[in-house]
Amino acid sequence: MIDARKTKIDEAQAWELLQDATSIAVAKGKKVQRFEAVAAEKEAVLKNVMGPSGNLRAPTYRVGKDFVVGFNADLYTDWVK
Q1: Digit-coded pLDDT (tens) for 21-67
Q2: What pLDDT shows up at residue 7?
Q3: Whole-angstrom Cα distance, residue 38 to residue 49?
Q4: Distance from CA of residue 62 to its chain's centroid?
Q5: Which residues contact 66 (CB under 8 A, 6 or more apart)?
Q6: Burial letters for 47-63: b for 16+ Cβ neighbours within 10 Å, e otherwise?
Q7: What is the residue-wise DSSP string for 2-59?
């Protein structure tokens, strides 16, 4: 576990974490963007997972090779099933 308040993750570090992901779900409010072909969609993935400050958005959860970035209650409910 990494505390994002103490450790900032820039774009290069974020890609290092995400590049081998099987899937990434990015929540922004009620909108959820899903990426299945992560390596082929590098620019789109990074555009969606990086916050305005240039750091990986929080919260970011990883289970195995799947990631969930951002907060959306419905997404979390579906993800934990």
Answers
A1: 999 999 998 999 999 999 999 999 999 999 998 999 989 999 899 99
A2: 85
A3: 12
A4: 8
A5: 21, 22, 23, 24, 25
A6: ebbbeeeebbbeebeee
A7: --TTTS---HHHHHHHHTT-SEEEEEETTEEEEESSTGGGHHHHHHHHB-TTSSB-S-
Q: In what order do the strands lie in the sheet with 23-28?
A: 31-35, 23-28, 66-69, 60-63
Residue 65, both tokens = 């090779």
Q: Which of 9, 16, 17 is nearest to 54 (CA)?
A: 9
Within a 10 A sphere around the Cβ of 45, how many other Cβ atoms?
A: 24
